[in-house]
Amino acid sequence: MKIHTAEKPHTCDQCGKSFPQKRNLDEHKKIHTLEKPYTCDQCGTSFPFKGNLDAHKRIHTGEKPHKCDHCGKNFAQKGNLNVHMKLHTGEKLYTYQCLKSFTQVPFNDQVKIHTAEKPLNCDQCGKSFSQKGNLNEHMKIHTGERPFACDQCEKRFTHKGNLNEHMKIHTGEKPYACDQCGKSFAHKTNLNDHMTIHTGEKPHTCAQCGKSYARKGALNDHMKIHTGENLHICDQCGKSFRKSGVFKVHLLTHSRERLHNCDQCGKSFFRADFLKDHLKVHTKEKPYVCSLCGKSFRQTSALKIHQKRHSGVKDHACSECGKSFFTDGALKVHQSVHTRETPYKCSHCDKSFKRSEYLRIHERIHTGEKPYHCHSCGMSFTHLSSLNRHKKKCMSEITSSSSSSDL
């Protein structure tokens, strides 16, 4: 009867809020005690109320039980459906000094935009926020919560939007196409960067010397010349890198296990798809055929690079001098002309090289490795060119010996 009579005899001694039933008060008190007894078995996030947990679980299941009768759109939360319904009714109850109208109570958040009020503070780092939702999103940085998991590679993300962007790696989706050369990109920002190749635009200018660059990253790299900022140095092997992205890729060689082994030659790989590509070396399989000249390739990436030679598209441009190249690898080799950087250092001596393959060849001097074998006589060589020279001599001797025996 208390529900109907509006009698609320159970009062919270922390904030004074009253409830009709004791169980309602007990649930409410969890807000003050920070008790979170309901834990998600998918990602470990805890909640004070079972209703919160049930709503959270829909992130993982994708369940959207609340359906709009007008347009059929589904929602995970009833509150989100209620807000959506106002689009159909045209209801906008809240207006402020900018004359913008709002359909939902978080109109108060809009007021804070005008007042610059940020009453919500992070108890971990002190950063302030105007909205509770923004604070909750920020807290994931400290808690490490990543509720959105990729079902292809199990990588986890803090936000659904980040997962959606990541999924393009697996689906191969590249919805952003260049109207100049037809090259497609997964992300709009990548297309914008690419377009500067065609426009010649260099909006990022160095305040120290006035030099301009097409990409912000290129300017950041250039600034290290003025600041004297240290290179990224690997504490495992001592190699140094100017770019953080290249450095991070290098670190994987130390930290990640190579679980995927080739049963033909024993070579190991970080990922199964790398092994799959490698196996084509042994099977001689070349399934990707150029429609213009009929040449075949083991990898689709190699075919795409080859096709650029037919079309003449050189979409990798040097930010220093504007020279263009078919591949990113060729561009990186060229850029060392400007930087004189030799990041690949020999672990046996003080020599360093511009390219990793030059270092590998050099290190054979120290290791004694001779990977190139003559199948006719069994001799081994450090360099492929040495093997090729030997083969001519070896075949000549075999032919001469065969002719002598015939006599």
UniProtKB/TrEMBL annotation:
Keywords: DNA-binding, Metal-binding, Nucleus, Repeat, Transcription, Transcription regulation, Zinc, Zinc-finger. The keyword Cell membrane does not apply. InterPro entries: C2H2-ZF_Transcription_Reg (IPR050717), Znf_C2H2_sf (IPR036236), Znf_C2H2_type (IPR013087). Pfam families: zf-C2H2, zf-H2C2_2. It comes from the Eukaryota. Its main location: nucleus. GO terms for biological process: negative regulation of transcription by RNA polymerase II; positive regulation of DNA-templated transcription; regulation of cell differentiation. GO terms for molecular function: DNA-binding transcription factor activity, RNA polymerase II-specific; identical protein binding; RNA polymerase II transcription regulatory region sequence-specific DNA binding; zinc ion binding. GO terms for cellular component: chromosome; nucleus. It is found in: Nucleus. Residues 10-37, 38-65, 66-93, 120-147, 148-175, 176-203, 204-231, 232-259, 260-287, 288-315, 316-343, 344-371, 372-392 form the C2H2-type domain. Belongs to the krueppel C2H2-type zinc-finger protein family. PANTHER family: ODD-SKIPPED - RELATED (PTHR14196), ZINC FINGER PROTEIN 208-LIKE (PTHR14196:SF12). This is C2H2-type domain-containing protein. It comes from Cyprinus carpio (Common carp).
